[in-house]
Design goal:
heterodimer; A: alpha+beta; Immunoglobulin-like; Rossmann fold; 9-stranded mixed sheet; 18 helices; 32% strand; globular; disordered N terminus; B: alpha+beta; Sortase, Chain: A; 8-stranded mixed β-barrel; 8 strands
């Protein structure tokens, strides 16, 4: 190096130095680029291929955990077995059902079993009996908390006990405790229900399974203040606080044989000569002892409890009676039940107003399988029925929502074509966020008072936050009327009836594709014809407590159903209203009422429903409505939100020291449902699925959707790179190197010169 | 000769460091170019298109602030790997245009360098990969800690948050984040 320096240093030393520095910088530049791109490629390769799992998407543990956990083979074969026998007697306008659940314990342990099951929405549950061996223990009605305490005391004392609690007006839980090894305990409940009538057809609907509900993540926060009045409280942000109580384990039909065999017998005493009697979703055997009586049993013996049982009957005569009046004397009061079908308006007298119809279709995962087919068929039928001067819009929702047109559009071929394409392309998946869809449907953008505004809502109603939906309807209904179409094999009838009631509309059920046309035709008759409005009822002599307090409008072919408690059975009942634009009235002499059964219970049940509605409408404070409900429930021995039935066998059976095992009885998936659509499947991380990530994310268990974002605020990722730091440090080093280099070149020069 | 060894070693070290820093920028720039192409195809075909065959993410939206001529392609997910190539759509937040708060995060020194120039009142355009177009207006900004952002993804409104590291000119990363909040003013579905 030194010789090199000395030979060159004589001629242009500075120029040489500069060239060297220049070359060095050039080489450095090339090296930087090379290093950068090599590093880039290496980083692309390793960095990305190492990402085999995406956090937040793959949570197999979550997808398979919790109340929806499938029991493995070993567990299910060793679990408590349940059989159900249902015996229904229809007497004219009412029916009484006796549901016997047989809990058999084939295991070697002492067991406590809980079973979540549905009942008819309008049913008044008034009797609980527990049969142990040859002893029958009759249950008492108690306030809910008190009943629970009694039950738990019996449980720890080793006594057999049964408890019936209401979770929703149509969901109940039976708990039975201290069932010994090899023992069988029978639990029997009874309820009273009015027969449903529509036009010429009478029907009863017997739900057999609670469909898995979608319980939305908390959105709206409410506050629970401490009872001591200190002003401090905690936010309660769960719209479905009792989600655990309405989410029993559900069996995957692909992995387990159906459970809960159910046998059904219906003794039908219609009170008139019967025509067609039809079971819509089950094969039945029908015997006819006489003209007005039928005995209906399941043709194939017991069936798995996986769909609603629906029975309809028609009178032999052309027209069903348009008036029915029934009475019952209980205690010191008379109870009256009246059915009146108003005459249908003459079409010619009035040209119907044009309508604005907003169709809302639920395409959530619970609608997967046959339900979405029925819903689509119904909606396509409905679109076809629109008149040229009507306007319409279509909204679809799962846990997301699309409104097809920004405002309702005229019914012309272009818009209809677009709507048909939209509906045909729908696929069922995701959760069921019903409230935003209802809100969108009720938003009255046109505000055209020359049009009748109607919302047709197609859903299975498989949600746990019914109350939130009711509040939305109450707050936003305006002049819109809501017509509910219950879809599928096990729709939430409570949601349908209450939503239609609050929305001053009507509801119908569609349980199979074959029913679509008939039921939708019936619904359209209601949509297209003027309702009977301004209804009022007056008793001439008797002092009466009438329910419903405010009589709703009655649509075509529907009867007006009134229940009343009277101080004496005298005088007459006059009902007035307007059919279209014409006044209408009818007077019924009370003396001609026929004897009926369980009418007092129906009256009380209806009053309880009124109190719940008044609470939703804010016409009653929660405290007042609770008080009213409790008084009625205790008076008439009915299970409600606030009262339960409890039965305790005083004879202790479980020896002290023997452990007790808890068993949540599994239920079937409703028929026609798609298990994976509801509970999600384990996501496979293959490239083809990656691009459908949103679909995957939605397929995660709808009822137990992972909602970390909802609970805590979003955590923001690290968003600074070390690029600047590295480049600065690198530059500093390079400059340092240059300085050193130049310095080392200078030194010999300086020494030479010296 | 020996006098040149130390500057050479220093120079190589400096080179590697500089190169390391430069490749972060090179990667960010190259990836955006590839993403731009994938995103256009995405809109045209209506399907998610991966920017390069072995990529594990895909473009979900284009975010633009026309006033300052800034634009970036947003990727699904906000892992460190995704953020190297573009802004990330933070997991568990809704898509832009849906109810709730959509959160996009990116590095302050690459894709969201422009965030410092965005003023309150600026219009932020978001084009989703399904072609739907949403227009937001920036209405507030804040500096928060990464674990106390106060962003509730399930908010009732239709909102957007752009997040990056704070302070803008720092060279090391810290716990503070700058968030720019915007509200939907126009949706073109």
């Amino acid at each position: 190096m030194s010789s090199y320096d000395t030979t060159d240093s004589d001629e242009h030393p500075l120029l040489r130095g500069l060239i060297k520095v220049g070359l060095f910088l050039l080489a450095q530049g090339i090296a930087v680029l090379l290093v950068a791109f090599v590093a880039l490629l290496v980083s692309f390769g390793t960095g990305w291929s190492a990402t085999t799992e995406q956090a937040g998407l793959l949570q197999p543990g979550e997808a398979r955990s919790g109340s929806l956990l499938l029991k493995e083979d070993g567990a299910t074969t060793e679990a408590i077995r349940l059989g159900t026998d249902i015996d229904i007697t229809v007497s004219g306008p009412t029916l009484r059902a006796r549901v016997t659940q047989v809990f058999r314990n084939p295991t070697k342990d002492w067991v406590e079993a809980t079973y979540v099951y549905p009942l008819a929405t309008n049913g008044a549950v008034d009797t609980l009996k527990m049969v142990v061996g040859d002893r029958v223990i009759v249950g008492d009605i108690k306030e809910r908390q008190q009943a629970r305490v009694i039950y738990e005391q019996a449980r720890s004392a080793g006594q057999k006990a049964a408890l019936t609690e209401q979770e929703r007006p149509n969901i109940f839980t039976n708990s039975v405790t201290n069932i010994g090894p090899g023992e069988t305990v029978l639990v029997q409940i009874e309820y009273q229900e009015p027969v449903h009538q529509s036009g010429n057809e009478y029907s009863l609907r017997l739900p057999l399974v609670v469909a898995p509900r979608y319980n939305p993540a908390p959105i709206v926060q409410s506050v629970d203040f401490r009872k001591d009045g200190s002003g401090w409280g905690a936010t309660n942000s769960d719209p479905v606080p009792d989600r655990d109580r309405i989410s029993p384990p559900v069996l995957d039909p692909a992995k387990a044989a159906p459970v809960n065999p159910t046998s059904i017998t219906v003794r039908l005493k219609a009170g008139f000569a019967l025509g067609e009697v039809k079971s819509h979703h089950h094969n039945v055997k029908i015997e006819s002892p006489d003209a007005s009586t039928r005995v209906v049993t399941l043709a194939d013996g017991a069936v798995p409890a996986d769909r609603d049982f629906e029975l309809t009957w028609k009178p032999a005569a052309e027209k069903a009676p348009s008036v029915g009046l029934f009475r019952e004397h209980v205690g010191d009061a008379d109870y009256l039940l009246a059915f009146v079908t108003p005459p249908s308006a003459e079409q010619a007298t009035q040209k119907p107003l044009p309508r604005e119809v907003v169709f809302v279709i639920d395409n959530s995962g619970s609608m997967g399988g046959t339900s979405i087919v029925q819903a689509k068929a119904s909606l396509l039928y409905a679109l076809g029925r629109l008149q040229p001067n009507d306007r319409f819009n279509v909204i679809r929702f799962d846990d997301t929502m699309d409104v097809l047109f920004s405002a309702s559009v005229p019914t012309d071929p272009a818009h209809l074509g677009e709507a048909l394409g939209f509906v045909n392309g729908l696929q069922a998946r995701g959760g069921t966020e019903m409230v935003p869809a209802m809100r969108a449907a009720l938003t009255d953008k046109l505000a055209d008072t020359n049009m009748v505004r109607q919302v047709v809502f197609l859903t299975d109603g498989a949600i746990g936050n019914e109350q939130q939906l009711f509040e939305t309807i109450t707050a936003m209904r305006g002049r819109s009327r809501i017509f509910m179409v219950g879809i599928g094999s096990a729709p939430n009838t409570y949601l349908m009836t209450r939503a239609a009631e609050l929305g001053r509309g009507a509801f119908t059920h569609i349980g199979s594709v074959e029913q679509v046309e008939e039921r939708m035709r019936g619904l359209f008759a209601k949509l297209e014809n003027p309702a009977v409005t301004g209804l009022s009822a007056k008793f001439s002599d008797a002092k009466a407590d009438i329910t419903p307090a405010i009589i709703p409008d009655v649509y075509r072919d529907e009867p007006l159903v009134l229940a009343a408690k009277l101080d004496k059975l005298a005088g007459s009942l006059e009902i007035k209203g307007r059919v279209g634009d014409r006044p209408w009235s009818v007077t019924l002499p009370l003396q001609s009422a026929a004897e009926g059964k369980g009418l007092s219970k129906l009256w009380a049940r209806r009053k309880i429903g009124d109190a719940e509605v008044a609470r939703t409408l804010r016409e009653m404070t929660p405290d007042d409505s609770d008080k009213a409900i409790l008084a009625l429930a205790l008076d008439h021995q009915i299970v409600t939100r606030l009262t339960s039935l409890v039965a305790v066998d005083k004879t202790p059976s479980r020896p002290a020291g023997e452990p007790l095992r808890l068993s949540d009885l599994p239920i079937n998936l409703p028929a026609g449902w798609d298990f994976e659509k509801v509970f999600g499947e384990r996501p496979h991380l293959t490239p083809t699925q990656l691009r459908e990530r949103h679909a995957d994310a939605r397929n995660l268990p709808a009822t137990r959707r992972p909602t970390p974002a909802a609970q805590d605020a979003v955590r923001l990722p690290k968003t600074a790179t070390s690029a600047e730091l590295k480049m600065i440090a690198g530059l500093v080093l390079i400059v340092l190197a240059l300085v050193l280099f130049v310095f080392s070149r200078r030194r010999p020069l300086l020494t030479d010169a010296a | 000769m020996s006098r040149l060894i130390s500057p050479l070693v220093l120079a190589i070290l400096g080179l590697i460091l500089f190169g390391d820093g430069a490749y972060i920028h090179a990667k960010a720039w190259l990836a955006q170019a590839l993403l731009e192409r994938a995103f256009d195809r995405s809109i045209a075909t209506g399907q998610a298109v991966k920017p390069w065959s072995w990529a594990d993410t895909w473009p979900v939206a284009r975010v633009e602030v026309k006033r300052i001529g800034a634009s970036a392609i947003v990727l699904e997910g906000s892992s460190g790997q995704a953020l190297a190539f573009g802004p990330g759509h933070v997991d568990h937040t809704p898509e832009a245009g849906e109810r709730g708060i959509a959160v996009y995060a990116a590095h302050r020194d690459t894709h969201f360098r422009f965030l410092r120039n965005v003023a309150i009142g600026d219009v932020i355009d978001v084009t989703r990969s399904d072609g739907q177009h949403f227009r937001y207006r920036a209405d507030s900004s804040a500096v928060v800690r990464f674990d106390a952002s106060g962003i509730e993804a399930t908010a009732q409104g239709f909102e957007l948050v752009l997040a990056t590291c704070w302070p803008f000119d720092a060279v090391s990363s810290g716990p503070e984040r700058y968030i720019l909040h915007a509200t939907l003013i126009e949706a073109d579905r």
